[in-house]
Write a structure and sequence with these properties.
The chain is of the alpha/beta class. It contains 14 helices and 7 strands. Strands 1-2-3-4-5 form a 5-stranded mixed sheet, with helices on both faces.
C-alpha cells in the first residue's frame, strides 16, 4: 500500500527536513512549503531538502522586485493570463486564452507566469486548506504556431520544480484535435500527479455543467462570457487587456484609478479583470497592495 499524503508530510519528516536545511535555509522555508515539497517528493526527506534549497536559490535570481512582466510593459498584447476569481473552495482561478496573446517567447511567457503565480499565492486566504490555484486555459485561437512544446515544458518545470503542489487543477477548455500533437510531446515529462489534475472540457452544450463542478454560477458566467467574446474578432478588438501600466503610460495614484475600475475594463457589460466578487476583493485591498498587484510603482 502506498503511503498517504499525510504520511509523506508527517511531523517527523518535516522535522528531519528542517534539521537538514539548517539555519541558512531553514529560516526561509516555512512549514507549509516543506509539507508541499514532501508531498511532491513522496516523503523522500533528502530529495525534498534539495528541492527546497534549489527553489530558494532560484527565487533569489528569478523573482524580480517589483514583479514586472517586461513583455507586457513594452506591448500590452503580449499575454492574456491573469487571475479572475476564486473557485468553490476559495482557490485563486487563473484564466488564459491563446488568441489574445501575441508573445511566443518561452522566457517571457515564464516571466509572466511567475508574476501571475506569485500574485495568486498572495491572495490565498491563510486558512485555505489547499494552498493551490486553478488554471483555466481557453484554447480559442490554438493552431500550428502553438505546437512548439517549449512554453508548455517550461510551465511544467515551474509547476514541478519551483511550485510543487501549487496546481490544484488545470482545465483545458475546448482543446482541438491538433492539440494531441503537443500533448504527445509533453506528456512523458508530466508527473503522474500533475496528469491527474488535467480536466478536458469541451465547448459544447455541457460546458456550463462541467464548469459548475469547479466554480460557482458567477464565475461560470464570467468564463462562458469571456469565451464567447474571445471567439468574436470584433469584440476582441475592443479589449484593452487586463494588464499593468505600459511603459510610457501613467500608473495610478489612487485606488479609484485602478485598471479594473476604468471604463475600458468593461466590454459589452463584461469586466475582463474578473467577476464582480473578485473586483470587490481587489477593491478591499489598500492602495499599495493594488499597485503591487498591477506592478505599478507607487
Amino acid at each position: 500500500m502506498c503511503p498517504s499524503a499525510q504520511e509523506h508530510d508527517s511531523r517527523d519528516n518535516v522535522t528531519q527536513v528542517q534539521n537538514l536545511l539548517g539555519e541558512k535555509w531553514g529560516q526561509k522555508a516555512d512549514e507549509a512549503m516543506i509539507q508541499r515539497c514532501l508531498r511532491a517528493d513522496r516523503g523522500n526527506v533528502e530529495k525534498c531538502t534539495q528541492r527546497i534549497i534549489k527553489t530558494l536559490e532560484w527565487r533569489q535570481t528569478m523573482i524580480p522586485s517589483p514583479l514586472v512582466c517586461r513583455a507586457c510593459a513594452k506591448d500590452h498584447t503580449s499575454h492574456y493570463l491573469h487571475q479572475v476569481g476564486f473557485d468553490k473552495i476559495g482557490r485563486p482561478v487563473i484564466y488564459s486564452v491563446f488568441n489574445m496573446a501575441t508573445d511566443m517567447n518561452p522566457a517571457e511567457n515564464v516571466q509572466h507566469m511567475i508574476h501571475c503565480f506569485e500574485h495568486a499565492i498572495s491572495v490565498m486566504a491563510p486558512k485555505l486548506e489547499q494552498q493551490q490555484w486553478v488554471w483555466v486555459s481557453d484554447f480559442s485561437g490554438f493552431g500550428m504556431k502553438n505546437l512548439n512544446p517549449s512554453i508548455a515544458l517550461e510551465a511544467n518545470t515551474l509547476f514541478g520544480t519551483y511550485y510543487p503542489e501549487r496546481l490544484g487543477a488545470f482545465i483545458l477548455l475546448g482543446a482541438p484535435t491538433i492539440f494531441s500533437v503537443l500533448y504527445s510531446a509533453i506528456s512523458p515529462a508530466l508527473d503522474p500527479i500533475t496528469s491527474k489534475k488535467l480536466a478536458f472540457i469541451a465547448k459544447d452544450s455541457k460546458i456550463t455543467e462541467r464548469l459548475s463542478e469547479f466554480f460557482d454560477d458567477e464565475l461560470v458566467s464570467w468564463i462562458t462570457t469571456e469565451v464567447t467574446q474571445n471567439n468574436s474578432k470584433s469584440t476582441r478588438k475592443k479589449k484593452r487587456y487586463a494588464t499593468p501600466a505600459i511603459v510610457g503610460e501613467p500608473g495610478f495614484a489612487t485606488a479609484e484609478e485602478a485598471p479594473y475600475l476604468r471604463k475600458d475594463a468593461v466590454v459589452d457589460g463584461h469586466n475582463i479583470h474578473g467577476t464582480q466578487s473578485f473586483l470587490q476583493f481587489l477593491q478591499s485591498q489598500d492602495l499599495a497592495w493594488q499597485q503591487a498587484y498591477y506592478h505599478v510603482a507607487p
